[in-house]
């Protein structure tokens, strides 16, 4: 149940974020900086990493047999509404 609510919340958040209308209202610029410094040197590393092999193998294991019965209940679920406000038709 918690998993379904989490998935629904993520899906609704994704839809809400994708529905945003963003317009640039002002140009940005980088600041002018005058710097006189000696160039640096990044350290060098010699790394001997282990070789990792990943695979699968088929194995028999004992698993329990489970009978699940379900009932239908009425529960409160979240409802989300998104209003975009003034949206130009040509941007849709």
Q: Which percent range fits the helix content? A: 10-25%
What count of helical segments does DSSP give? Answer: 1
* N/C terminus separation: 35 Å
Q: Show unreliable segments.
A: none
Radius of gyration, CA atoms, in whole angstroms: 28 Å
**Strand element count:** 0
Which series of helices and strands comes N to C? H
Question: What's the average pLDDT?
Answer: 81
Instruction: Output the structural class.
Output: mainly alpha
Q: What percent of residues are in strands?
A: under 5%
Largest sheet: none
Shape descriptor reads flat
What can be said about this structure in brief?
This protein is an all-alpha fold and 92 residues long. It contains one helix and no strands.
Protein described:
The protein has one helix spanning 2-18. It is flat. With 92 residues, it is mainly α. The relative contact order is 0.23. The protein has one helix and no strands.
List the helices and strands and how they pair.
Layout (H helix, E strand, L loop, with lengths): L1 H17 L74
Q: Which features would summarize this protein structure in a list?
A:
flat, single chain, 92 residues, mainly alpha
């Amino acid at each position: 149940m918690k998993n379904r609510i989490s998935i629904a919340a993520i899906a609704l958040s994704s839809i809400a974020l994708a529905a945003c209308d963003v317009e640039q209202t002002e140009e940005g610029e980088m600041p002018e900086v005058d710097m006189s410094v000696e160039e640096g040197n990044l350290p060098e590393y010699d790394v001997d990493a282990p070789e990792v092999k990943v695979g699968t193998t088929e194995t028999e294991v004992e698993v329990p047999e489970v009978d699940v019965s379900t009932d239908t209940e009425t529960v409160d679920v979240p409802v989300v509404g998104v209003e975009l406000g003034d949206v130009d038709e040509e941007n849709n």
